[in-house]
Amino acid sequence: QVQLVESGGGLVQAGGSLRLSCAASGRTFSDYAMGWFRQAPGKEREFVATISWSGGSTFYDDSVKGRFTISRDNAKNTVYLQMNSLKPEDTAVYYCAAGSRARRSVSLYDYWGQGTQVTVSS
């Protein structure tokens, strides 16, 4: 089992920045690829970014490419999502997830955090 706890969400004006963190405990963190997903009210959960177990590979959804950066610190069992140039359409609950491979699909992740709210005002 892997337990994941997100933090760092909040209210920010459009154009601002936030950094989300996801702290992992339980099984060996570096065994897992990590992903960030988000879910807005009334919408499906959607892929944001993912990073391989080593941090050597990262992938982003086109909607956040160039604005968001995913990174990880295996010594601290933590994955981060740096979000810059935030837009109102980025408003959602953001979830981190752990899986065996760095992929876009929600169904390929085995463990999920409880989520952290990000609200971007116009």
Structure description:
This protein is an all-beta fold and about 120 residues long. It has no helices and 11 strands. The protein has strands spanning about 1-5, 10-15, 20-25, 35-40, 45-50, 60, 70-75, 80-85, 90-100, 110, 115-120. Strands 2, 4, 5, 6, 9, 10 and 11 form a 7-stranded mixed β-sheet that branches. A 4-stranded antiparallel β-sheet has the order 1-3-8-7, with no helix packed on it. It starts with a strand and ends with a strand. The mean pLDDT is about 95.
Short description, anyone?
The chain has 122 residues and is mostly beta strands. The chain is built from no helices and eleven strands. The strands form two sheets. Strands 2, 4, 5, 6, 9, 10 and 11 form a seven-stranded mixed beta sheet that branches.
The parts where pLDDT drops under 50 for at least 5 residues are none
Please give the count of helices.
Answer: 0
Oligomerization state of this entry? single chain
How would a textbook summarize the main sheet?
7 strands, mixed
**What string, H for helix and E for strand, traces the elements in order?**
EEEEEEEEEEE
How much β-strand is present in the residues? over 45%
